[in-house]
Amino acid sequence: MAKSMKDNKAVQMLKAAEEGGYGVIGVVSYNLETITAVVRAAEKKRSPAQILLFPWALHYSPLLIHLAAAACATATVPIVLHMDHAQSEEEIVAASEYPFDSIMVDMSHYEKEENLEKTERITKFLHEKGIATEAEPGRINGGEDGVADTGDLEGLLTTQEEAERFVNTGIDFLAPAFGNVHGNYGGIENIKLDFKRVLWMRTALISGWMDRLESIRKATDGKAQLVLHGTNTFPDETMQGCIKGGMTRCNVNELVLFKYNKYIVENTGKVPLTELMGRGTDLIQEQIEYQMDIMGSSGKA
Ligand code: 13P
C-alpha cells in the first residue's frame, strides 16, 4: 500500500507555496559552502528552502547526502532534501535508501510513452517509501554540471494533454518545458548591443510561455505542483512572472553561484582556504537571500 503523501515535507512545502502564491528556492548544491549558505539564508530570512543534489552525489560520496540531510534535520526552518534529475532507475533505487523527501524521476531522455510508463512505475515504488516524485513531461534542453546534456535530442515543449496524463500517474510535482533551458541562455545574453529588441522579444516570449504555462497549470489543477527549471541569468521580473504563472519550487544553480564561482577562480591559492570557504559561503548566501525576497518566500517559514 502506497503511503499517503499528505505528510511528506516536500508536498506540504510546495502546496503551501501554491496556496500562498510564492516560490520556494531549490538550490543545486555541490559542496559544504552551498549547503551552509542555504541554511543560513533560510534561517535569516525565515524562509522555507530546498537543497537539491544531483545523482552525482551518490557517486562522489554519500557523506554529502548525510551532510545535506543533517542540515535539513537541524535547521530551525523547514528545509527539504530533494534529488534532482535522477535519470536512471538504478540511481533512483540507490537514492531511495537515503532520507530524500522527494526525487525527480527524470525520464525525459526517453520517448514520450516510455517516459510516461517509467514515471508511473517508479512513482509507485517511491510512494511506497513515502518519497514524493517530480516528473518532466516533454524535454527541457541543455545541461549543467552534474546533468547530462540532452545533446542532439530535440527539446519538446510540454502540452496540456501530456501534463494531464503525467498528473494521472500520481506524481506530486511537474517540471514543464515551456521554453526554459538548462545552463546558459546564450542567445539573449549575447545580444547586448541590441538591448531594446531583446527586451521587446523577451516580453513577447514571456507572454507566449505564460500561455503554455497557464494551460499546463489548468491541467495539473492543484493535483501536482509546478516546478521551474533553467533559471540561469533570469531577470527578477521573469522569475516573478513564472511564480505568478504557478511555479512553486524555483531551481537555481548559476543564479546564486556566479559570484562564488568568480571569487573562487580569482582567489584560489591567493588567500587561506578558511577565508576562501568563509567568503565563498557569504557570497552564495547573499544571492540566496536576494532570491528569497524576489520569490516572496521571506517570512513564510
Ligand atoms: P540551471 O538554471 O543552471 O539550469 O539550474 C537549475 C535547474 O534547473 C536544476 O534542475
TrEMBL record:
Pathway: Carbohydrate degradation; glycolysis; D-glyceraldehyde 3-phosphate and glycerone phosphate from D-glucose: step 4/4. Its cofactor is Zn(2+). Pfam families: F_bP_aldolase. SUPFAM superfamilies: Aldolase. Keywords: Glycolysis, Lyase, Metal-binding, Zinc. It catalyses: beta-D-fructose 1,6-bisphosphate = D-glyceraldehyde 3-phosphate + dihydroxyacetone phosphate. The active site is at D84. One of its GO terms (biological process) is glycolytic process. Its EC number is 4.1.2.13. Binds 2 Zn(2+) ions per subunit. One is catalytic and the other provides a structural contribution. Belongs to the class II fructose-bisphosphate aldolase family. This is Fructose-bisphosphate aldolase. It comes from Venustampulla echinocandica. The lineage of its organism: Eukaryota, Fungi, Dikarya, Ascomycota, Pezizomycotina.
